[in-house]
Amino acid sequence: MDRKRIVIALGGNALQSDTKEFSAYKQLETCKKSVKSIVDLIEDGHEITIVHGNGPQVGEIISVYEQAPNVSPMPLPECGAMSQGYIGYHLQQTIKGEINKRDLDKDVVSLITQAVVKANDSAFDNPTKPIGAFFNEDDAKKLSKIKGYTMKEDAGRGWRRVVASPQIVDIVESNAIKCLVEAGYIVIAAGGGGVPVIDKGNGVFEGVPAVIDKDFAAEKIGEIVDADVLIILTAVEKVYINFNKPEQKGLSELTVDEAKKYMKEGHFATGSMLPKIQAAIKFVESKPERMAIITSLENAKESLNGSTGTLIKK
Fold first, then answer.
1. How confident is the model at residue 46 (pLDDT cuts 50, 70, 90)?
2. 68 CB-near residues (< 8 Å, 6+ apart)
3. Domains of the chain: which residue ranges?
4. Considering only CA atoms, which of 278, 302, 114 is closest in space to residue 212?
């Protein structure tokens, strides 16, 4: 296959094998296994930029402060930046280690990335994205009063803090990312969707308590670096319609029009496959000849030749 410039959206299963119990040590061990499929693509000569999730990790940081009544809350933008830093460290270390094993001449860098959102995004009027630990109703109300959080009941499992999930409109560090990619670096950027910031004018940005979907951030990075392919790696091999039903069907290829039709019919779950499909469509429509692939981590290399995964194109 011809050399491609690829942006990879790395799902949480590549960072944490145990989604119920977070562990930084386990994450590092999981990364050592996960990055092999990414380095397969690097070994084949492709240019790779990586965007990763951070849900469990930032949730763990937040939980420490939520459950410490005499400790001032850590602002959410800072929590996002902290998680970007140490997840980037794990990915840098393990990718470079695998590269060295294969005697490849490539370097890896991760960049704390700020994602610009609009201050008037309607998402801020109705925070819906749950983060952090679960609480009973009484403790949730106390947290809301003491720390100013918006707390909502989460599907019968308890009460959690909720924040807005606005749309990304730009990346503050876009020029730096482009320069690093053009120089041949493997770049890890916009981890967890990036730290959400609003433009205050005159080159001043300010962090806001929100989270950005990492698939939309990966799409934006794809446009910035002029990528050929967006690969969204998740827990399933393909996109399915009628998922988890007797008539479930895996899709090997989707046109943008077909994807929009299935979206309208409600085949893709909010917070799960839907944002992946939406990000894939946006990337494919952003420039002729671009394509997106949704597949599992272990099938990253094979998906490029069409033997597995779901290809989305015009």
1. very high
2. none
3. 5-123+172-313, 127-163
4. 114
Instruction: Please state, as a whole number, how many other Cβ atoms lie within 10 Å of the Cβ of residue 119.
Output: 11
Closest among 38, 34, 65 to 303, alpha carbons compared: 38
Fold of 5-123+172-313: Carbamate kinase (3.40.1160)
How far CA 237 is from CA of 7, 41, 100, 263, in Å, comes to: 18, 17, 29, 19
Is residue 200 flagged as an active site residue? no
- Residue 30 CA to residue 277 CA, distance in Å, equals 26
Alpha helices by DSSP H, listed for 76-125, are 76-101
**Alpha-carbon gap, residue 304 to 72, rounded angstroms:** 48
The two three-digit tokens of residue 175, written as one number: 């020029």
Q: Is-above-0.90 flag for pTM?
A: yes
Task: Collect all residues with Cβ–Cβ distance below 8 Å to 284 and sequence separation of at least 6.
Answer: 256, 290, 291, 292, 312, 313, 314
Of the pLDDT bands very low, low, confident and very high (cuts 50, 70, 90), residue 291 is: very high
- Which one of 54, 59, 88, 129 is the catalytic residue? 129
Active site residue 13: yes
Which one is catalytic: 96, 220, 238, 276? 276
